[in-house]
Amino acid sequence: MIPPPENVMDSWQGIEQSFHSGKLAHAYIIEGGNIKVAENFATRILQLLFCKHDEAPCEICSSCSSVGERKHVDVLWLEPESKSRQIVVSDVEEVIARMNRTSFEGGWKATVLLHADRLHPVAENKLLKILEEPPSRSLLLLVTDNKAALLPTIKSRCLHVYCKEGSESGVLDIENALDFFPPTTGLEVGLLCNIISAALSQLLGNRNEAMEMEFTSGVELRKEVVEARLSADRKLIQESVVIQLVRWLHDVLSVQAGINEKNIYFHDRVGQLESIAQKYTADDILMMIRELEGLKLRLDSNLPEQYVFEEVFRKMVL
């Protein structure tokens, strides 16, 4: 058996023990700050199910290879393909039909929903049917980087696995940007925008390279899937910036409220957070959080990305 990466070792051991004891759940939400890390973890779970060797997953047998190439006959992969970048009702109907049929190889049957947080609300409600009455030897994996966007009724019927980010996971790093956030001058607004823009461009370039590698590795991707995935990637990376900045401001509020340092997300920057907490009122911070939440909608417009960020950041210079 090839060991998993260190950053997901703890999560993997729990899955492996459940599988070998016959207690694998019928549905898992696999969450990772980097969707690719969570996606790779889902692939490894499937290889554990379908591997032909005793020490599974070997990653080299025909079953492991077909899972890795998304060609296994008993695995259905779904991700947003429509122009709205959502998983729609017809997709979920296909999931239900596939899961209720006998598997082709007489064993497990599985479905992976990539970017599960993009389930259309109606499709999400329809998915409850398969979660409430799961067929035998079936597995549903909901892969996401935003579990909070899923319905509580969905989350309550799945086990949650969190995949920690490795040092080279490709997650957008905005640590340098936090040195200038919230901005206090127009100059800092410009520096902040430049740092974020450069980080976005670099990570999007890495994602495009990864997509090209999938082509060369033999994974067949339809044009509409590629376009939808690239578009979704850009949106996800933009949202990751907003999420981290909001977390930063929530930490400022936590410091103002005297919350224990252990419960602060950016606990290694407490000194900086304390300085910000003394400079601004709670109302100031709440205003900034509202502006960031509105930023998500403005990023969906046709306005230039950097212009949208700059417009919002300038409102934070008090």
Describe this structure in words.
- The protein has 318 residues and is an alpha/beta fold.
- It folds into 2 domains: 6-163, P-loop containing nucleotide triphosphate hydrolases (Rossmann fold); 175-314, Zinc Finger, Delta Prime, domain 3 (Up-down Bundle), CATH 1.20.272.
- It is 53% helix and 9% strand.
- The protein has a 5-stranded parallel sheet with strand order 2-3-4-1-5, with helices on both faces.
- Strand 3, helix 5 (121-132) and strand 4 (138-144) form a beta-alpha-beta unit.
- It is elongated.
- Mean pLDDT is 81; it is low at 167-171 and 214-221.
Please sum up the structure shown.
The protein has 318 residues and is of the alpha/beta class.
* CATH-level-2 architecture of the largest domain: 3-Layer(aba) Sandwich
The largest pleated sheet is described as: 5 strands, parallel
Main sheet: strand order: 2-3-4-1-5
Give the full name of the CATH homologous superfamily of the largest domain: P-loop containing nucleotide triphosphate hydrolases
| Integer count of domains | 2
What is the rounded distance between the termini? Answer: 57 Å
Order of helices and strands: HEHHEHEHEHEHHHHHH
CATH class assignment of the largest domain? Alpha Beta
Overall structural class, as computed from helix and strand content, comes to: alpha/beta
The radius of gyration is 21 Å
| Low-confidence sequence ranges | 167-171, 214-221
| Estimated share of beta-strand residues | 5-15%
Q: Give the integer mean of the pLDDT values.
A: 81
Helical fraction equals 40-55%
* DSSP strand count: 5
In DSSP terms (H or I, runs of 4 or more residues), the helix count works out at: 12
CATH topology of the largest domain: Rossmann fold
Note the overall shape. elongated
